[in-house]
Amino acid sequence: RRAEFAALRDLPSVTLDGQRIELMVNAGLREDAQALDLVGADGIGLFRTEFQFLVSATLPQREKQQRLYKDVLDAAGDRPVIFRTVDIGGDKALPYMQRDEEELEDNPAMGWRALRLALDRDGLMKAQARALLEAASGKVLHIMFPMVSEPWEYDQAKALVEHQRQWLQSQRKKLPVAIRYGAMLEVPALAEVLDILLPRLDFLSIGTNDLTQFLFAADRAHPRLAERYDWLSIAILRFLARVVSTCHAHEVPVGVCGEMGGRTLEAMALIGLGVRRLSITPASVGPVKAMIRAVEATELERFLKGLLETGVSDIRSQLTAWAEDRDI
Ligand code: PEP
Ligand code: MG
């Protein structure tokens, strides 16, 4: 079916009933930006900036960061690139960042990582903000923060970027034409304060990899647990349904950037929950687009609503049957 997916490259990502679904890709390296054209994606929905830090033997200097961001933006052209600020620490430890013995963690995934670390080591965050601002001069800069757990963390991170913007402005440097700020929803607690957070955001991106590990208290990398909890479980889908409808009520664009969105059946469920933006691995764009072009979003929404209300336990087989009935 590869040739079939390749033929879809230039066809729009629209459901049978005319709902446009944005299909973006997850990336992290300079070379990944080329995948955009290869698969015909709408942009980069998650650029994992920590990759550069992880593959480097020493802390990448600001100029080096800036070059990478600029190259990626150039490759993307008019399409948006959502840069996620560094998600390091915990299991993504940097060899060149010293840690004291007492800083070793029992639960690195829930530890001092991502925005928590970046706000404490704000020199790192300031340099990255400057690199991003300068790389995106004359363009729109999309920036999002990982592992936001409480609204104040988002506020502080945004203030830090704004401070750098003002400084650059005072130096008469050319700035981005606009900055769009977003947060990742990966920590379940954030879902309970969305009414407070959403009015301050330009977009929300749901990171289902971390979110499901925290919802089920199940290590995402643990081989014995990998098959145990289904992304199509009623708990996850009900949780996501609430988040998505809260975003709609606040008119804040919401997308999913975890691996869940790259699996055809899961992506189908997400569309049924009202998700209209997916950021997935490039290889999934073809199969997911083929599915999108074969479903009716409103019918899918009705079906999902019914399943979640009645509390069907095996949503996966129900969705599979639904898809088979329609030759999807
Ligand atoms: C996620 O947690 O779902 C996510 C997209 O981020 P990462 O996989 O990089 O933790
Ligand atoms: Mg994550």
From TrEMBL:
Coiled coil: none annotated. It is found in: Cytoplasm. Signal peptide: none annotated. Belongs to the PEP-utilizing enzyme family. This is phosphoenolpyruvate--protein phosphotransferase.
